[in-house]
Design a protein that fits this description.
mainly alpha; Amino acid/polyamine transporter I; 20 helices; 75% helix; globular
Length: 497
């Protein structure tokens, strides 16, 4: 086997699903994003927003999986865009994708450090700075990423199963009990409730947070080269992953609404998440208090540990994704050749190391500047990720349509209707994410309340710099590809192989 190939046959459908569901970190979404979507967004209809976004992403998956049967490449997004829109656009999308995967890993490192530092201080009186715990995780993640990919899949599989079980058990117990008002499907899933407040108001905020919560599912095709049968495994894993994430998010958030009572949702979220009368100071308190109330204190204790393991699983998943993107670019000639080589375990060693070096550099900067790991590192980086990935998903949807218009070989639903509908839905999502970036990242001008409809698009200079980062990266990638014609020739060969 050439050392420019990833080891084949290491992952089946379940292994790929483990990686991508772990990347979406569902427990983190339920404890961090859902309470904000409820309070600042559309209240009891937040579950409907998550369901609506899941359906849009299922539409995206139709064209995405159709393309996966034509192209098998560890840099899936850029290979798909390159096949449909040309190599220059493909490289542009690769640069934007790398921004997305690197920033989400940085965001998780920040959240991990903040959470573990708090837990260790509270439970064991071990009071160490956040970056100490982050460095420990960084070392373990880097080490595991240099091993065979199936080892990482086994670690993620155990963590993911425990995480999903804790959410499903809690949700089922709450729904069976009926809560104080019973199950009110209309309040959570009726279209007029989901879109209450309009896209400029509550509905837009909830949908923006829902889109941000799904980041990670699209990585299925990245592992195609290492799967047992990529033409079958990638489509199946994609549908299983997005289906599982959608059902999990919708059912768990609906159980949270049921447990609090749909008519009292705003007061309940405030009461359960407040610290010193500051709402949402502890958003995890909403789910944890419900677990205490309906299942028992042991469940919230288990969840507090699983939040940490969920974050670690996300770190490992995105480390693997970033490393494989660098590998694909190295093999395609965009980056130096050493990035297109693997070690004896079949891991893309140069990409893994570069990903770790970049992460370490940014975390050292945040530590030296005494910036907060959650309020700054997590919120800033995760907001950039959401924009980068949705932007590239739009390009992929357009590329699917263009490719099959030229080449044929697919039915109208898979080649045109679904990807066009997905592109429209994703474009709406991108608009909402960008217009509400001030709320997602906390980058508002002084004196502006980001929760108000009229505050849309109001960003300070830092906010504008962050929100434009994926587009600047894409522009740099496009220009780079235009200038480096020799590398483009290598990339064409890799995309069309």
């Amino acid at each position: 086997m050439s050392n420019t190939e990833l080891k084949k046959g290491r992952l089946g459908v379940l292994g790929i699903v483990f990686f991508v569901v772990a990347a979406s970190a569902p427990l983190v979404g339920m404890t961090g994003a859902v309470p904000v979507a409820m309070l600042a967004g559309n209240g009891a209809a937040a579950p409907g927003a998550y369901l609506a976004v899941g359906l849009v992403l299922l539409l995206f998956s139709v064209g995405y999986t159709a393309m996966s049967s034509r192209v098998t490449n560890s840099g899936a997004f850029f290979a798909y865009v390159g096949r449909g829109l040309g190599t220059n656009a493909g490289v542009a999308s690769a640069f934007a994708s790398l921004v997305g995967y690197i920033t989400i890993q940085l965001a998780i490192y920040g959240f991990f450090g903040g959470i573990v530092a708090g837990e260790m201080a509270a439970r064991f009186a071990i009071d160490l700075p956040w970056y100490v715990w982050t460095l420990l995780a960084w070392l373990i993640v880097t080490g595991l990423s240099l091993l065979s990919v199936d080892i990482g899949a086994k670690v993620l599989g155990v963590l993911m199963i425990l995480e999903v079980l804790s959410l499903f058990v809690t949700a089922i117990v709450i729904l069976v009990s009926g809560g104080p008002e019973g199950m009110n499907f209309g309040a959570s899933f009726s279209p007029d409730q989901i879109f209450v407040g309009g896209f400029a108001g509550g509905a837009g905020i909830a949908i923006a947070f829902a889109f941000a919560s799904f980041i990670g599912f699209e990585a299925t095709a990245i592992y195609g080269e290492e799967s047992t049968n990529p033409k079958r495994a990638v489509p199946r894993a994609t549908y299983w992953a997005i289906g599982l994430i959608t059902v999990l998010f919708a059912i768990t958030s609906f159980a949270m609404v049921t447990g609090m009572g749909a008519s009292k949702i705003f007061d309940e979220v405030i009461a359960r998440s407040a610290i010193d009368e500051v709402p949402l100071a502890n958003p995890a308190g909403v789910l944890f208090s419900l677990a205490d109330q309906y299942v028992g204190p042991w469940m919230s204790q288990v969840m507090s540990i699983l939040v940490i393991s969920s974050l670690f699983a996300g770190l490992l998943a995105f480390q693997n994704a970033s490393g494989r993107y660098f590998f694909a670019l190295g093999r395609g000639g965009v980056l130096p050749k050493r990035f297109g080589a693997t070690n004896k375990a079949g891991a893309p060693v140069a990409g893994v190391i570069l990903t770790s070096v970049l992460a370490a550099a940014v975390m050292i900067y945040f530590a030296v500047m005494a910036l907060d790991p959650v309020l700054n590192l997590f919120f800033w980086m995760s907001a950039i990720t959401a924009i980068a990935i949705i932007f590239v998903e739009i390009l992929v949807s357009i590329a699917v349509v263009v490719h099959f218009m030229k080449e044929g070989g697919e039915n109208v639903w898979r080649s045109k209707v679904a990807p066009i509908a997905a592109a429209v839905g994703l474009a709406l999502g991108l608009y909402l994410l960008m217009s509400r970036f001030n709320l997602l990242a906390g980058t508002v001008p002084e004196g502006v309340d980001p929760s108000l409809p009229e505050s849309a698009w109001q960003l300070n200079s830092l906010g504008w710099g962050l929100v434009l980062t994926p587009f600047i990266a894409a522009l740099i990638g496009y220009v780079y590809a235009m200038v480096n014609k020799k590398e483009n020739a290598s990339l064409v060969k890799d995309i069309l192989s």
